[in-house]
Structures are given as C-alpha cells and as structure tokens.
Amino acid sequence: MSAAGPIPVRVAAIETVSPFIKTFTLEPLDGGLLPAFSGGSHVVVTMQGRDRNHRNPYSLMSSPYERRFYQISVRREDDGRGGSKFLHGNVRVGDELAVSPPANLFALNELGRRHILIAGGIGITPFLSQLYELREQGSDYALHYAYRRADDTAFLERLAAEHGERAHFYESSQGHYVEPGRILADQPLGTHVYVCGPEGLIDTVVTRARRLGWPESHIHAEAFAAPPSGKPFTVVLDKSGDELEIGPDDTVLDVLEDNGYAPDCSCRGGVCGECETAVIAGEIEHHDDYLSEEVKREHSRMMICVSRAASERVVLDL
C-alpha cells in the first residue's frame, strides 16, 4: 500500500499552446513548496468527474529548481479514456485537483558523457524538465524533436531560442523525418539515448541502438499508453472476499482505488512493476511491458494498472 498520500493543488493558470495542447500550472493549496523532483519525473493527476474519477500520469515539464508550482502539458485525446478531455473541457483556473508525489522512471544518467534526446509529438514533455538540468549542469546534449505539423506542435520557438544548434526539428508534413540510425552512429563512448513518443518511434530508436551495439544500460525509453478497453469482468479479492465489477473502460487499479484500496503503482502504464499481483484463478489478457513471457503464459501474475481478465472472473491475492 502506498505510504505517501495525494497532494492537493490548485490550478493557477491554463495556457493554450496549440489547438490540441494546454499547459496547466498547479500550485499547492497550502501555499508552501511542492516535493522536489528530477528531470523526467511524472505525477498522477486525479480528477473527480461526474460519473467516474480520472487518474492520468503526466510528465512534469517545469524546472526541477522551481518548487512553488508544477507544470504539465496535456494533449486532448478524443479516443482516450477521458482524462485529457476532462482537463481540456472541464478544468478551470481556481479548480482544485490532487497529484501524486513525483516518481521518476525516466531519469538522466548522471554518469553519461553525452545525452541524445529524441522526442515525438507530445513526447517532448519529459525532456523539457531534463533540459533545465542539462543546461544547469553544463552537460553535452542534443535534442531531436519530430512532429507532424508546426501549427499543431508546442514549444518550437522556445526550444529553438533556448537551445540553439543543440535542437534539431523534423516536420513530417514538410518531408523532414528523424533518422535514428544516423543520429546514433559514431557517438562518443559513454553516450546515453532517451526516447519518448509514439510506439513506432520508440521501437525504431531502441532497435537501431541495439543493432549499433549500444549497451542496454545506455538506452532509455518512456511511453504513457492508455490502458486498453475490453469486455467487462469480475475481480474477486481473495483476502477480503470483495467482488468488484470492472467495466469496459475501467482498470482493476482504478476500481480498487474507487473502493478504498490503495495499491502501489508509479507508472499506471505497465512498466514500473509496483502493482504486480498474484493471480489465484482465472486467465489474464496481458498488456504490460514488465512480466516475462513465461510468467504471462502461466497466468500467475497480473499488472493491475493495464492488464485485463481474459475470463469472466479472476481471483487475485488481495
């Protein structure tokens, strides 16, 4: 169970930075300082809707050296589970929300001699906080930012002004595409690569780096994919005997939290491993990137933040 509780915050400002992206500035209700974080960190934002609660992870894009507020940027996803649409359509300046303490699954490697940042679309957000650190520390770095159209993309002018020749831009609608193989070739020993964005971009960067002989410890990737929808099912909690109904757009984690349980989970995306739960009975439809293929075939464990039941009922060791 999680020891650190949610942090109440107030929406201090909302800025529309593109037709589909808004930046939200969040300040603590008590007027003090927010918990410290490092570049690449994220928080889980809890929003109380009329019919359900939304809990979405968002990268912190503000400076790690500024603790009076946090900033997140959210792209509206009309086909998502509703959290981004709620923030865009329902949240106003002055509203109160709650955020989790920051967690970092995408930190810069302190021993890296050079840092290559490759972003696609809204995947630029975790790099914004990392860039503060890289500049402050005088690190050697380069940013490669791929996007579809300039008029639907955030932070281009800011990045160009602040990072000059270290920032490289690729607008696919104009025929300019990022080339990971070329970027990663002939980098000096001790270079680390970081990639965040669409699944295709991440897969390409990771594959190219491996083919070029990069050590796994020097390849870093992050993606916040929305948990998939599916058929409803019933979860039985073996220790308490509670039976909970999981709807088509719910996750087991969401429903547990709505019913007063507080399982640990830093990522809500099937990568951190904190919400791994033993399965006593039932079959699992796995959607995580954490469990081994052998464990998945056994249906003995489940990542309750993203995976679903393949059977009508599943009994968990909770």
What do these coordinates show?
The structure is a single chain. By secondary structure, the protein is an alpha/beta fold. Helices cover 19% and strands 31% of the residues. The chain has seven helices and 18 strands. The protein has helices spanning 83-90, 125-137, 156-163, 180-184, 199-211, 252-258, 293-298, and strands at residues 7-18, 21-28, 42-48, 53-59, 70-75, 96-99, 114-120, 141-147, 167-171, 191-196, 219-222, 233-237, 243-246, 276-281, 284-285, 301-303, 308-309, 313-316. The strands form four sheets. A six-stranded antiparallel β-sheet has the order 4-3-6-1-2-5, with helices on one face. A five-stranded parallel β-sheet has the order 9-8-7-10-11, with helices on both faces. A hairpin with a 5-residue loop joins β12 and β13 (243-246). The longest helix is centred in the middle third of the chain and has 13 residues, at 125-137.
How would you sum up this structure in a few lines?
The chain has 318 residues and is an alpha/beta fold. Helices cover 19% and strands 31% of the residues.
The percentage of residues in β strands lies in 25-35%
Order of strands across the widest beta sheet? 4-3-6-1-2-5
Regions with pLDDT < 50 over 5+ consecutive residues? Answer: none
For the largest beta-sheet, the strand count, sense and barrel status come to: 6 strands, antiparallel
- Amino-to-carboxy terminus distance: 11 Å
Mean pLDDT value: 93
The count of DSSP E runs of length 2 or more, i.e. the number of strands, is 18
Number of helices: 7
Shape annotation: globular
Helix-strand makeup class: alpha/beta
**Helix and strand string, N-terminal first?**
EEEEEHEEHEHEHEHEEEHEEHEEE
Rg estimate, integer Å: 20 Å
